[in-house]
């Protein structure tokens, strides 16, 4: 073997190999606090009904996934195959830096953050997982590039109807289109609250989201504010509310692809 043919990027290569052939879905938004982790958890719960699923928490600071699933005190085991997902269902395992650092907080400069994300993607043992669902951190820096370097993915973009969120999300959509990762879905989370027969829109009209959808060829899925959701933090696998049923259409489309 010629020396120059040896990869100078072994981690990236490993991540690429491990993810090849899997259906990778990335739940993303330029913004924080819009519901990415919640939606990534629910999508993973839904895909697990169809096939083995690994849910990867790439938000190395937020680490909401282990808390949503109630496994924040469990640590990853490491086998010959790599970091073993923490099982929350027979068909659903979670990978998160929380399962490596325990209760310590994580402070990382930007480029290190990208390295940690890449390492998690490379060392995770996805086993026979058909689906890999990725909970992305907010922001539009290295985190966006890391994933694109190792796999193709179906982006699912999450926003609230607020203009501030939509402005950031439009940049993300344009970036993804330029990177040849045309997104198909824009989830407008916390769009409305159903109160008896009436619908309240706390952020006002959602017209701007529909305009974005039209402009960039995205299907819009509006999700309500569900006050019961908070009761399911720690046991989100037991959640049966409206968010879950509304996300089924996306999951069905991903599976049929
Ligand atoms: N549709 C919703 N209805 C009620 N609460 C929600 C909804 N979506 C998200 N939340 C709550 O909002 C908070 C932020 O959601 P999260 O999924 O952590 O956002 P992100 O990952 O984008 O930062 C969480 O407490 C979550 O339970
Ligand atoms: Mg999150």
Structural topology:
Layout (H helix, E strand, L loop, with lengths): L9 H10 L3 E6 L7 H12 L5 E5 L6 H6 L7 E3 L2 E3 L1 E4 L2 E5 L1 H4 L8 H14 L7 E5 L6 H9 L3 E6 L3 H16 L6 E4 L4 E3 L2 E3 L6 H10 L2 E4 L19 H15 L1
Helix pairs in contact: 1-5, 2-9, 5-6, 7-8
The site of magnesium ion (MG) has 6 residues, from helix 2.
What is the rounded Rg?
18 Å
Strand content: 15-25%
Give start-end ranges of low-pLDDT stretches. 1-8
List all distinct small molecules, including ions and cofactors, that are bound in this structure.
adenosine-5'-diphosphate, magnesium ion
Overall geometry comes to globular
What is the total domain count? 1
Q: Order of strands across the biggest sheet? A: 5-6-2-7-1-8-9-12
Number of DSSP strand runs? 12
Main β sheet profile: 8 strands, mixed
CATH architecture: 3-Layer(aba) Sandwich
The portion of residues assigned to helices is 25-40%
Structural category? alpha/beta
Q: What is the tally of helical segments?
A: 9
Mean pLDDT: 92
Fourth-tier CATH superfamily name:
P-loop containing nucleotide triphosphate hydrolases
* C-alpha end-to-end distance: 39 Å
CATH class: Alpha Beta
What is the H/E order?
HEHEHEEEEHHEHEHEEEHEH
Assign the CATH topology.
Rossmann fold
């Amino acid at each position: 073997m010629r020396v120059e043919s040896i990869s100078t990027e072994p981690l990236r290569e490993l991540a690429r190999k491990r993810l090849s052939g899997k259906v990778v879905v990335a739940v993303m938004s330029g913004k924080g606090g819009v519901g990415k982790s919640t939606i990534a958890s629910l999508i993973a719960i839904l895909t697990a009904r169809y096939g083995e699923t690994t849910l990867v928490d790439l938000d190395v600071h937020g680490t909401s996934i282990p808390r949503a699933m109630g496994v924040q005190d469990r640590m990853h085991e490491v086998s010959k195959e790599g970091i073993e997902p923490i099982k929350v269902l027979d068909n659903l395992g979670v990978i998160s830096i929380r399962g490596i650092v325990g209760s310590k907080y994580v402070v990382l400069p930007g480029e290190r953050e990208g390295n940690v994300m890449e390492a998690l993607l490379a060392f995770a043992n996805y086993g026979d997982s058909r689906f890999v669902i990725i909970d992305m951190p907010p922001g539009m820096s290295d985190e966006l590039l890391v994933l694109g370097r190792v796999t193709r993915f179906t982006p699912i973009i999450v926003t609230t109807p607020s203009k501030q969120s939509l402005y950031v999300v439009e940049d993300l959509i344009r970036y993804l289109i330029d990177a040849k990762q045309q997104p198909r879905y824009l989830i407008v989370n916390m769009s409305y609250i159903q109160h008896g027969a009436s619908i309240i829109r706390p952020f006002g009209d959602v017209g701007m989201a529909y305009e974005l959808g039209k402009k960039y060829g995205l299907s819009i899925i509006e999700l309500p504010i569900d006050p019961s959701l908070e009761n399911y933090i720690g046991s989100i696998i037991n959640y049966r509310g409206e968010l879950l049923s509304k996300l089924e259409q996306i999951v069905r489309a991903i599976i049929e692809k």
